[in-house]
Amino acid sequence: MNRGQGALRLVLGDQLSDSLSALAGLDAANDLVLMTESVAEATAWKHHKQKLVLVWSAMRQFADRLRARGIQVRYVTLDDPANTGSISGEIRRALDEAGLGRVIRTACGKWSLEAHLLALADTLSVPVETREDDRFLCSRQEFAAWAEGRKELRMEYFYREMRRKTGLLMDGDKPAGGQWNYDAENRRKLPAGVRPPQRLRTPPNPVTQAVMARVAAGFEDHFGTADGFGWPTNPDEAAAVLDHFFDDMLAGFGDWQDAMSWGRPFLWHSLISPALNIGLLDPLAICRRAEAAWREGRAPLNAVEGFIRQILGWREFVRGVYWLKMPEYGQRNALDAQGKLPAFYWTGQTDMACVADAVTAVRDHAYAHHIQRLMVTGNLAMLLGVHPDAVDDWYMVVFADAYEWVEMPNTRGMATFADGGIVGSKPYAASGAYIDRMSDYCKGCRYDVKDRLGASACPFNALYWDFIDRHERQLAGLGRMMMPLKTLSKMPEAERVAFRAKAAATRRAMGV
Fold first, then answer.
1. Could you tell me if 371 and 431 lie in one domain?
2. Cα separation of 221 and 218, whole Å?
3. Where are the alpha helices (DSSP H) in 123-187?
4. What is the C-alpha to C-alpha distance for residues 54 and 226, in angstroms, rounded to an integer?
5. Chosen domain end from 81, 109, 131
6. CA-to-CA distance for 438 and 467, rounded, in angstroms?
7. Amino acid 80: pLDDT
8. Does 144 lie in the same domain as 123?
9. 339: buried, middle or exposed (CB in 10 Å: 19+, 13-18, 0-12)?
């Protein structure tokens, strides 16, 4: 290896793609790939044990695949006695020891780390080339150009532009089927007696087993359990999970993607987001495969459009918002929420059946599907007035697919309305009636979903009307809040006072 001519190519734990821009043009004879198990990144939040296992196992296997191609890899494990504990420290150490002439990296997905690495570049004695992360379908610059001059940023209109750009689900210049969006056909409650197909879970391979043992030995104070780990950690495993979804789940996904059911954490959802967000799957290839399933008559349009919308629309949109609005976005608290996160978000020990089931799923699988995240845990945190920092931290810790670019706009935008309407056109606030409509939770719950103020009343009910009451002025300008505000305006003052008192008592009881 001619060290002076070679480049140090940095690969982060969520950049495990063969097509990564930092690896383009790699010179196997002279270049060195740097990968490091960063203690600082692992402990910035006390990430779920399964997330640590997922990322470190996938990183180790990615490094092995590079070596099998004749590429030189400098892989720094947690147990390397010289591990500096940080990515920047390992960059400096590698440059000092290998004598390489430049650094090549792909822009990372976390604003603070990106800012840190840009600042680091100014202090190094070699040039640093930062390349676009072109695994996403809309660049940061492209999104900023789309957003410029718009009074509101709405995913629906961005999504239409992405459909036109990619040609996905298009018939000429018209949307396939005559509609852009089939969301209204994605909201069926799971009928009694209907059971989802058995889900494919990935048995831990030897590398994963070794990482599981290391996490158990050194990160026992982190949230959740690694027992039952079943996430894919390499491209072959991820492809098998994707095949299973397309073969057995996609056709039912459209009808029941918003449904919830006690003790069934996965239903018809794809379960690909942990693998997708670390780079084991290609988002455009996934969307094209989904489109082919519809065009070949193997899945209905409401299923395929809803699935593609989540990847091509929502995933790309929230990333665009994140980079457009950071770092100020991470300070937003439009509703001035100041409360603490209840302890049962960590323990699951609550009589609220919907919350207990969602937290149990999160503890056991580092996963809950999007409606459990938005309309159960997120909705409750917003109604309680939990500070968005606490909500951010919880979502970052507990979910295997959580990275700041995707987590923060979902929590501060959709779940808590802390961004004041940048992401969503209204707060996604709901009483117990919504949960009853979309799930079977309420049948087995200690609380009565139809009771609003009694001793057995569902906590969501008083909290909902107290939320509308407390924020009446802020919500008045939001057209989609017209109906609940109109109902509130007709409510007798005594009833409003009763809701306030009931909600205050609930917050005290929950330790908010």
1. yes
2. 8
3. 140-147, 155-166
4. 10
5. 131
6. 21
7. 93
8. no
9. middle
Does residue 81 have a cis peptide bond before it, meaning omega lies within 30 degrees of 0? no
Predicted TM-score of the model (pTM): 0.95
CATH of the domain at 49: 3.40.50.620
> Nearest-CA neighbor of 342 among 470, 463, 219?
463
**Is 10 a member of any domain?**
yes
In a domain, residue 153? The reply is yes
pLDDT < 50 regions, the chain: 1-2
Please answer whether residues 231 and 202 qualify as being in contact, where contact means their C-beta atoms are separated by less than 8 angstroms. yes
What is the pLDDT, as a whole number, of residue 3? 53
User: Using one digit for the tens of pLDDT, what is the confidence trace for 197-243?
Assistant: 899 999 999 999 999 999 999 999 999 999 999 999 999 999 999 99
Query: Residue 389 has which token pair?
Result: 């920092």
Only one residue has tokens 């919907």, namely 354
Q: Report how far apart, in Å, the C-alpha atoms of 456 and of each of 161, 446, 464, 502, 508 are.
A: 48, 7, 16, 12, 16
Tokens of 508: 């005290």
For the packed helices 49-68 and 206-218, what is the interaxial angle rounded to 10 degrees? 140
Report the alpha-carbon distance of residue 403 to residue 401 in Å, rounded: 7
pLDDT of residue 206: 98
Residues 359, 362, 368, 374, CA torsion sign: positive
Instruction: Identify the pLDDT of residue 474.
Output: 93
Q: What is the pLDDT of residue 363?
A: 97
Instruction: Retrieve residue 143's tokens.
Output: 């999104």
Which residues on adjacent β-strands are paired with residue 32?
8
Asked whether 469 and 499 are in contact (CB, 8 A), the reply is yes
Whether the Cβ atoms of residue 488 and residue 496 lie closer than 8 Å to each other: yes
Query: Domain limits at 475?
Result: 344-509
Query: What's the Rg (C-alpha) of the chain?
Result: 24
Identity of residue 83: N
Token digits for 440? 């079977």
Looking at residue 387, its pLDDT comes to 98
Nearest one of 439, 416, 436 to 426, comparing CA atoms? 416
CATH of the domain at 439: 1.10.579.10
pLDDT in the model for residue 1: 46
